[in-house]
Amino acid sequence: MDTLAPATFDVARIRQDFPILSQPQARGRPLVFLDSGASAQKPRVVIDAMVRCMETAYANVHRGAYRLSELATNSYEAAREATARFINAVDAREIVFTRNSTEAMNLVAHGWGRGVMKPGQAVLISELEHHANIVPWQMLRDDKGNELRVCRITDSGELDLDDLEMKLADGKVGLVAIAHMSNVLGTVTPVERIVAMAHAHGAKVLLDGSQAAVHRRVDVQAIGCDFYCFTGHKLYGPTGIGVLWGKPEHLDRMPPMLGGGDMISYVTFEKSEWAPVPAKFEAGTPAIVEAVGLHAAIDYVTAIGMPAIEAHERSLVDHATSTLATVPGLTLLGAAQDRGGVFAFALDAAHPHDLATLLDRAGIAVRAGRHCAEPLHTRFGLENGTTRASFGLYTTREEIDILAQALTEAREFFR
Amino acid sequence: MSGLFDDLRDLYQEVILDHGRKPRNFRRLDDADATARGDNPMCGDRIELFIRRAPDGSIADAAFQGRGCAISTASASLMTETVKGKTADEAKDLGAKFRELAMTGVCPDCGASFADEMERLAPLSGVHEFPSRVKCATLAWHTLNAALDGAKEASSE
Ligand SMILES: Cc1ncc(COP(=O)(O)O)c(C=O)c1O
C-alpha cells in the first residue's frame, strides 16, 4: 500500500539545497512551505548560477563581437538547448523564451489565434483552466469573433471526455487549449487522448504545463501536442522567464507579438523582415540571467531525476489523501484518479482567508482564495474560494501531518 | 489548555467570532434609499449595503448581505449597528477614525466625540498587525462611503 519513493531520493538532503528552508521564521517555528504551486523555492545552484553569470560572464546577447557578449550569448542559447532536451523537443529552435506561461499563452492567442486561425474557428478550453488560459481567448473572441467553448469537468474534477468529443464534433474547433495539470484540483489530464481526439477533428492543441512540467517528465513528441508552455519560477527557477514550445511549422506561420531589436533580419523605414524563429518572438533584450537560472534549475531536477521526483510526490499525494481525510469538517476539491500534489479544500467552520491567517501563525504557508480559477470555484459552488496546499520536491510527510494537525485545531478555534 | 493559535485571540476576539458567525442586520432593505456594492477582489469578499434615511437625513436603518471572512463580516455587522442614527457626515467621520484604528491599532485624535462607538469597534483593532487583513475590516466602511456619496460600487483595493 505504501508507495515509497526510491531510496535514492533523500528528501532531507534535498532540503539542504534550498537556503530558505533553513531560515528561521517568525516566532522560531520552522517554515512549512506549502505554496509551491504558486511559486517554488530556489535551490542554491540556481541562485549561484545567476550570481556567477552576473559576476563573470554578463553582457547583452546576440549583439557584441567581444568575448563577454559571446559568453553571455552562449549561456543564453545553452539554456534553450537544455530546455529543448528537458521536454524532448526535436530542436532548440522550437523553444521560445517568454516572461512566464501567461505570456506564452498570450503569444499563441496572438500569433496562432489572430494570425493563423480563421474568425469562424472556435477555441475549446475547459472548466478547470487558470485565468491565464481563459482571458486571452476571451480577448481573441471579443477582438476577432472566435467562439470560445468550454469543456465540462466531472464532479471528481476530471475532464468530461464525452463533452470534449461533443464540442469537437462539428469540426469548427481550431485550437484546444487545456491544462496538463490543474493548479486547484491537482487533476492530471489525459493529454495523449486529448491530442488524438482534437487532431481527429482537425484542431491543434496547446497544453498549459505550468503545473505538470514541475511534477513529471514531459515529452512533447510522445504527447503529440502542437504547443506546450511552462513557467520557470514554478520549476525552482527564477521569475521572469517562461517557455513556449511549438512545432516549427506552426511557429513559422505565426506573426510576432512584439516588434523591436533582435527580432528582425532586415529593417528599412519602409519595411522590416522578421528574423527566423525563435528570435522572431524575442524582441528586445531577453531575460539573460533568468535563462541561466532556468538552465540551472533544469539541470538540478534532471540530476535528481523527474521519475524520482514524481515517485516522491506520488507518495506525498497518497499520504495527503489519507491524512486530510481524517480532518473533521474538511472537504477536498477534486478526486481525480491521476493527480499531482495540489490539494484545495474547504473547512466547514472557517473562511479560507481566516484559515490562512491562522496557518501562517503556525508557520504554514498556504494560499487562500480562488487561485486564479474563479469559474472553477463557481462550478463547485465555492464562491468564497478554497485553501490550497501544494507540494514541491522538498515537501515531507511530516509537513503534511503538521498541516492536518493545524487544520484540526483551527476548526476548534472557530467553532 | 494552550492551543496553537492562542495568541490569535487578540485578532479573533469573541465579539468578532460571534458577529462573524451571526451577523446582525444581515438582510436586504427593500425600502433602501441608497445601496452600494463593495468588492475586495483579492480575496473575493463581496457585500451589498443598504441604507435608509430618516426625514432629517440621518441614517434610520443600515443592513447588508454578502459573503466574506469572519473579519469582513463582523466589521460590516458592527458597522451597521454603530451608524444607525448618525448623519452622513458623522458616519463618514466615524469611518475615517475606524480606518485609522484598523491600520495603526490606535486612534489618538478620536477624542470624546465617538468614544462609545469606537469602544464597540475596538475589537477589530487587532487587524493592524495583519496588513493583508486590514482591507477585510475596512471594506464595509468603504462601501458605506460609496452609498452615502451615491456611488454604486466600492473596492477596498
Ligand atoms: C495552471 C497554471 N497556468 C498558468 C499559470 C500562470 O503562470 P505565470 O503566472 O507564471 O504566468 C499558473 C500559475 O499561476 C498555473 O498554475
TrEMBL record, chain A:
Pfam family membership, one:
Aminotran_5
Q: Which InterPro entries match?
A: Aminotrans_V_dom, Aminotrans_V_PyrdxlP_BS, Cys_dSase_SufS, PyrdxlP-dep_Trfase, PyrdxlP-dep_Trfase_major, PyrdxlP-dep_Trfase_small
Keyword Transferase part of the UniProt annotation = yes
Keywords on record: Pyridoxal phosphate, Transferase
Q: What is catalyzed by this enzyme?
A: (sulfur carrier)-H + L-cysteine = (sulfur carrier)-SH + L-alanine
Domain Aminotransferase class V span(s) in chain numbering = 32-403
Cofactor names from the entry are: pyridoxal 5'-phosphate
Quote the EC number.
Answer: 2.8.1.7
Q: What class of enzyme is it?
A: transferase
Gene3D superfamilies this protein is in?
Aspartate Aminotransferase, domain 1 (3.90.1150.10), Type I PLP-dependent aspartate aminotransferase-like (Major domain) (3.40.640.10)
Q: In terms of domain of life, where is this protein from?
A: Bacteria
Q: Record's family?
A: Belongs to the class-V pyridoxal-phosphate-dependent aminotransferase family. Csd subfamily.
* Annotated function: Catalyzes the removal of elemental sulfur and selenium atoms from L-cysteine, L-cystine, L-selenocysteine, and L-selenocystine to produce L-alanine.
The molecule here is called Cysteine desulfurase
Q: From which organism does this entry originate?
A: Neoroseomonas terrae
